[in-house]
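Lab notebook, bench 4. The sequencing result for the construct came back, and we need a structural model before the next group meeting so we can plan mutations. Quick request posted to the team channel:

Model the 3D structure of this chain.
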Amino acid sequence: MYKPSVTTYTPHSSVSNPLAMLVQMFRDLARSRDLGWRLAVRDIQAQYRQAYLGVIWAFIAPLSTTITWLFLNGTGIISVGETELPYPVYIITGTILWSIMIDAMNAPLQQTNAARDMLAKLNFPREGILLSGLYQVLFNSGIKLIILICALLVLGITPGWGLLLFPLGILSLVLVGTVIGLLITPIGMLYTDIGRAVPLFMNFVMYLTPVVFPMPKEGWVATLFQINPMTPIILTARDWLTGFPPDYLMYFLGVNAVALFLLILAWSAYRLAMPILIERMSS
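Done. Here's the predicted structure in C-alpha cell form:
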C-alpha cells in the first residue's frame, strides 16, 4: 500500500547530485507499484465496461490491418515479395507486434494527459502514472498474444522452443516504445500537435520495418531497413514465435542495451520536466 511521505527538493538538487536522483527514482518506482496497479485496474474496467466485444477490441485494429494488406496483395494492387512464412502469418505477426510497440509508445503521454487534474491537486510519485500505462500495455498485449497464438495454430504454424524466449521480444517492444513515449511526453504535454504528429510519423516508419513488407535484398531502401532499430526487434520476436532461428540476435541485443540507457535518460527528463508542467497546468 502506498504511504505518503514528505520530500524536500531544492532547485538544483537533482542536477547537482544525479546519483541521489537515480536512487530516488527507483525508490519512487517501488513505492508507486500499488498505486499504478489500482489506476490500471480502474482504467481497464472503464475501458471495457460498456464495450459489447470487451477485450476483443484489443485485437480488432491489427486484424483489420492484416485483412486490408491481404486484400491488396491478393488482388495484385500491391505486389509483396517472397517471405519465409506464409504471407497471412507474416503480416498478422508483424502487425500485432508493431501494435504492442505503438501502445507502449502512446501510454506515457496518454496517461499523463488523463491524470492532469490529479497531478495538479495531489502530490504522489509520478511513476505511478507510468506504471499504470505499463500495466495496461501488458494486459492488452497478453490478450493479443493469446489470440495470435491461436491464429497461428489454425494457420498451421507450431511454435518451437523459441516460444520460451518470445517474452523477451515482447519486453523489448515495450521497452523501445516506452523510451520513445517518455521522450515525447514533456513536449507533448505542452503542444498537442506532438501527440498527433508522432503516430503519423510512426506509420511511415512501419513501412521501413519488416512488418507488412519483407526485407528488400538491395538498394537504398534495403539500407534503410537495415539501419532501422525496429527491424531486429520485430524480426527477432517473430522468429522466436514462429520457430525460426534469429538472424539479427546481436543487433537485437545492441538495440536493447542502447534502449535501456536511453530509458534512464528519458525517465530522468520526465521527472525534471513534471514540476514545470504541473505548474503550467495549474496556472
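The mean pLDDT is 82.
Will bring this to the meeting.
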